[in-house]
Design brief:
GMP Synthetase, Chain A, domain 3, Ribosomal Protein S8, Chain: A, domain 1, 2 domains, 3-stranded mixed beta sheet, 19% strand
């Protein structure tokens, strides 16, 4: 990454942090934000005593905050500037929720994958977000003898774990 691109990323992360702090303040939540810039994403880690309020049920509040931050920060970008380096996602996290969620989903994939292999039956999971489905799909792809696919529409879209025929 060029020095200019690095400075621009830092500016975007700072703008995102300021915007997020403003939204949290309007929600009545006092917080600090740590910025962690990785190769593939920039994480805005919210530090607050009100972690449960920031996360919300099943992470819906945090997902909404993340959606808002990305929309506001990237809305004025000319379409020609949308290369990966300049528009890597801004991830909002609190209390390590994102990493815990990935581990929880990988555990579900492992248990339900084993069930599908033992019963030789398709196992249907509950509806989940596209992001969560992707994590489960990737975990199932690592398990020999199994495949997965998504079915349904919108809020009812769910994942099927399919044992491969012998």
């Amino acid at each position: 990454m060029t020095e200019t691109a690095t400075i621009e990323r830092e500016d975007l992360a700072e703008k995102a942090s300021e915007f997020l702090l403003g939204v949290l303040e309007r929600m009545g939540i006092s917080a600090d934000i740590d910025i962690k810039d990785d190769k593939d994403k920039t994480t805005l880690e919210i530090q607050t005593k009100d972690t449960e309020l920031v996360i919300g049920r099943r992470g819906v509040v945090m997902d909404a905050l993340q959606h808002l931050v990305n929309k506001v920060i990237y809305r004025d970008r000319p379409s020609g500037e949308r290369d990966r380096e300049k528009t890597k996602p801004l991830v909002v996290d609190a209390g390590g929720f994102r990493d815990k969620q990935i581990e929880r989903l990988r555990g579900i994939a492992q248990r339900m994958g084993e069930k599908a292999l033992q019963t030789k039956q398709i196992v249907e999971l509950q509806p989940m977000t596209p992001h969560d489905r992707r994590i489960v799909h990737m975990a199932i792809a690592e398990m020999p003898g199994l495949s997965s696919r998504s079915e349904g529409e919108g809020e009812d879209r769910h994942l099927l774990i399919v044992p491969n025929p012998e």
